[in-house]
Design a protein that fits this description.
single chain, mainly alpha, 9 helices, globular
């Protein structure tokens, strides 16, 4: 990615660090969260710098090592009572505000599209509307938690809507990458996520966003079941 301006890579590194900050604060400054995040970012950053993820042949693709382990960790946390108790300690308001990182992520994807590293279908011009999550997050935080006037049902609807937007872009990213099961973006495939620092998007930012969404959905549903507004 020699022709890519540094401000694009630097901006995404800053976005990743902002994601670390938000999840750390939402966890009430858990030492375990910051240690795991730092170790995982260093490991995945190192692998990407060696060119490990640029080999897209074979099944399962090496790319799966970015996304699958964090997803399994999330599943484990929700499956175990000790994990659920830990997740219940996260601050819902800060988890909501975390979604502002989806705005610079979408701007990064658009810049990568202009330099022909991702297809148009991964941008807001091509039907990826995940930017709406980032734009609306500050308002949901303010009216849902800082000055709460939104009902739990409204918060639940927003979280489910944003979760569907996340699933949409993840699907687009995977199916437009040059794997054996590629379905879209043949003229301009998704290759950016094979390179540092953009490998941190599927390897860290997306799982953290997914975790934040699932924690809040669980907590909101629990509140509705218990009869709280």
């Amino acid at each position: 990615m020699e022709n890519l301006p540094f401000y694009i890579s630097g901006g995404f590194i800053a976005t990743t660090l902002l994601t670390v900050f938000f999840i750390y604060r939402a966890s009430n400054c858990s030492t375990g969260v910051i240690v795991v995040a730092a170790a995982w970012l260093l490991l995945q950053g190192g692998l990407a710098l060696t060119g490990f993820y640029q080999v897209s042949s074979g099944l399962p693709p090496r790319f799966s090592l970015l996304l699958v382990p964090p997803v399994l960790l999330i599943a484990g946390l929700f499956a175990l009572k000790r994990g659920r108790d830990f997740l219940d300690g996260f601050d819902s308001g800060r988890l909501t505000l975390l979604h502002v990182v989806r705005l610079p992520v979408e701007l990064t994807l658009y810049a990568l599209y202009l330099y022909r590293y991702v297809p148009t279908m991964m941008t807001f011009e091509g039907g990826n509307l995940d930017i709406l999550s980032g734009l609306s997050a500050p308002f949901i935080f303010y009216f849902g938690y800082a000055k709460p006037i939104l009902s739990r049902k409204c918060l639940l609807a927003w979280n489910i809507f944003c979760l569907l937007l996340l699933v949409n872009i993840v699907g687009r990213a995977v199916l437009s990458a040059p794997f054996t099961f590629q379905r879209f973006g043949f003229g301009q495939p998704n290759v950016a996520l094979f390179y540092f620092p953009f490998s941190w998007l599927p390897g860290f930012v997306v799982p953290v966003v997914l975790l934040a969404q699932l924690i809040n959905i669980r907590k909101i549903i629990a509140g509705l079941i218990q009869g709280r507004k």
